[in-house]
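User: tokens in, sequence out, please.
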């Protein structure tokens, strides 16, 4: 990936490039996005997105086939979202991914939804809990960015 000066930047892993493209894609469509979002169960979603209607999407990034095959936890995310997607690079063999899940193809600059997931509707109490957690985490991250010297008491 190239930085603003046109030099190749080695600091972006394949997964980070996919995450960047996915976040841009969802944000351009009016979603708020956060990476590394932890649920109360301790599981951490690669990306969570919330649209203007409160629909919650979880996006699990798979940077390689071994990464997908070794992941036994992705099904645990289904109870925390309305839509669940796998996000992969263009060279990923998509036929190995579960057909009931959404599919996003991404690179460092953008993404495309190839397949929408099977519909699932969160219960209201869980939606509220996740949305509030999303809001608090967003505010805390903004605070860390705008006032990095502040230490939480």
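Assistant: Sequence out:
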């Amino acid at each position: 990936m190239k930085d603003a000066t046109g030099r190749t930047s080695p600091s972006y892993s394949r997964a980070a490039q996919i995450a960047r493209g996915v976040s841009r894609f969802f944000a351009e469509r009016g979603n708020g996005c956060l990476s590394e979002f932890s649920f109360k169960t301790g599981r951490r979603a690669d990306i969570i997105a919330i649209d203007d209607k409160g629909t919650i999407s979880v996006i699990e990034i798979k940077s390689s086939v071994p990464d997908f095959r070794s992941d036994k936890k992705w099904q645990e995310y289904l109870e925390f979202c309305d839509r669940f997607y796998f996000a992969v690079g263009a060279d990923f063999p998509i036929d190995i991914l579960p057909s009931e899940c959404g599919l996003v193809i991404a690179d460092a600059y953008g993404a495309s939804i190839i397949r929408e997931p099977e519909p699932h509707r969160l219960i209201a109490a869980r939606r509220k809990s996740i949305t509030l957690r999303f809001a608090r985490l967003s505010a805390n991250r903004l605070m860390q960015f705008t006032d990095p010297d502040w230490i939480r008491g």
